[in-house]
Amino acid sequence: MKKINDWEDELTFEDTKSDNRDLIQFIRRLYSNWYWFALCALLGLSLAYLYLRYTNPTYTIKAKLLVSDDKKGGMVEPSALLDLSSLMGAKNSVDNEVEVLKTADLFREAVLAEKTYITYFNAGQVHNAPVMLAPIDLQLLSNPDSILDGISLKALLIDSKTVELSNADTSFRISYDRAFRLPSVGTVTLHKKEYPAAEGMTFGFSIVPVRKAVGSLAESLNIEVTNKNVSTIDLTLNHGIAQRGEQVLRTLIQKYIERNLHDKNAVADSTLSFINARLKFVTQELAGVENKISGYKKNARLADISEQSKILLHTSSEYNKSLAEAETQLAILDDISKYLKDSSNPRIVPASIIPQDISFNTLIPRFNELVLQRERLLLGNTVNNPIIQNIDKQLQGLRADMIANIQNTRQQLALSRNKQQQRSDLLTNQLSEVPTIERGFIDLTRMQQIKQEQYIFLQQKWEETAISRTANVANAKVIDSPKADEFPIAPKKKLIYVLGLLAGLITPLGIIYLKDLLNVRIRSIEDITSRSNLPVLGAIAHNQSHEQVVITKTSRSPIAEQFRALRTNLEFVLQGGKTILFTSSMSGEGKSYIALNLAVTLALLNKRVVLMELDLRKPTLTSKLSIDAGKGFSHYVVRPDMEIDEIITPSGKHELVDLIQAGIIPPNPAELLILQRTADLINSLKARYDYILIDAPPVGLVTDAQLLNRYADVCLYIIRQDFTFKEQLFIPNDLEKKGKIKPIQFVVNDIQAKGGYQQNYGYGYGYGYGDYGQEEKQPWWKFWNKK
Questions:
Q1: Cα 41 to Cα 20: distance, rounded to the nearest angstrom
Q2: How far apart are CA 395 and CA 387, in angstroms?
Q3: Which of 71, 224, 427, 738 has the most crowded Cβ, counting Cβ within 10 A?
Q4: What burial class does residue 665 get, using C-beta atoms within 10 Å of its C-beta: 0-12 exposed, 13-18 middle, 19+ buried?
Q5: How far apart are CA 605 and CA 231, in angstroms?
Q6: By the 8 A CB rule, do 748 and 719 touch?
Q7: Which residues pair with 137 in a beta bridge?
Q8: Assessment of whether the complete model's pTM goes beyond 0.90
Q9: Which CATH class is domain 525-771?
Q10: pLDDT tens-digit map of 130-179
């Protein structure tokens, strides 16, 4: 690929830089590299196509739930059962239900129900496409929790009885419906399903640990309240298969509703169990009292009670009724207190047994909620879990508060009972005159009333609880069933293509910018003018002909005109001088090339020119001119008897251009340059020639150029584009500042024109020749129009 560089349209000696010059220059640079942008854009679009081709789509499945919220409204239970159903739990909150839906236990139930830890796919050469249905059905015979590590196997259906399973590590054949063991998974079996054209096709399945499947479901599911003004919950699931995602989300909602009903029914079942136990005991006591009354009447032969006994009995009956109610409440308080003091295994406390104790009834729902939460956590944790220990501490505190409330209530009831007992005892004293038999009958009747009141109370509560349990409904219902979007949310084709195109366009732009940012070599005129105040005498374009001499009498090429422009500018600088010194910062910047072509350019004006090859350490002019090495400067300086004519050699490029070779490489070149014989040689050459061009070594490496400056009228400092380092410009600046070499004029060499925008544009004064005077080239696209 041809190297493309940028340069200024003109070299000027005044600061005429416009505000938008950098922008225009940057746009030209981008335009000159248009093919890179086109290629990278095409590559970006191709990569986007490949990404879309081999990326599995992701669909969004949405569902909506309506939750009963006591603050916001929502689902309303039947008014006839509203009071009874409120006995079964605490108030509902949509925020609480969102947290319940996010629990890992609920996700685990859905994963186990749907077996999402097992997935099937169509095996491809590049990627595997997930499918909902496959010709094989994998059944895990062992516990799903036995899956320790994931595994993925391809299944090649050999025939109706055999399937070959393989992956990168193993390959084996098995028969359908025969159990086998997979490492780190457990015992499994494969069943064949009806599937069209299944034989010879390659399917596969993947098995992951349950905990990983639960985590994947939690990451892909988003649960949030629609807004703060309603009691609806939005569920959004991202899944690679639309139908499979709908099924998973539907199962998750079903498990949530089942768990919600289970919690409500657990409270009702506990209350019914408690009431049944009490009814059995009270029934037995009531039957015993009735048997005693029957036997007492039979033994005492009682047929009727006197009028006085009726009055006394009626009065006593009122007191006995109050005592019966007090005894009933005390018995219930004792049973509940005994029920709560058993802390070895926390159980659900029956609700609304003590209606007069409002404080106690408010503690029961919180206590029951913690007991249910503890039972759920114990399914997957031990009692040493910090969360369970925290719940135990809360239960212990609530149990203490409830027992304290029961003790306070019992003290109040005992005080009321004692007062009633005193009044009853007073009435009993009034009956002292009643026959002893009748008094015994009254005692038995009173006992019968007490037990009968207990029985009626418990039977009433049993009916209420049974009706409430029947009326239990879930706190939430589905108002929008799970539905998948018609189009996948990822990958987005238009966005991927746009990103691919932008990436393709930005990549070469970034490379160009980064290349310019990290460039340490001189590339533009600003790189010179921003670091040096020395003038730029001329600029020479890149030589594509690979000839050492690019200028002849008839040449009209742009590079020939640039040497002519350099010659013109040089005449203004010399002001009658003859000696020109060529140097640079380092080797390879084109000193010899510039000196040789400038010599020919000066000779075209019928001027006699001599080239002095004084780079005594590494001479190159002789080899560039294809001349045999002979006697030269080093021979002449050390041999006083040698004449000047003996070291002057025709250049072979022009009859007016001669060459003085370097001669043999001396051990002390610097000392030879400052000898008086060297000065005499220069003076003699000035008498013979119109111009003396001295090719000196790089000034950045040795001091030869500084020594030769005493003989020169001007120093041409060669800078090569994309070769000379920017930091090397401090060398000519320092030489000029300290007066070691002056005057110094920059000549920029090897400028490569910017293709694609303005090929062959000029440099400096009179350098903008372009293709002027040359034969117009035929565009390549018109080649086929030639006949």
A1: 28
A2: 12
A3: 427
A4: exposed
A5: 100
A6: yes
A7: 191
A8: no
A9: alpha beta
A10: 888 888 899 999 999 889 998 999 888 888 788 889 988 889 999 988 99
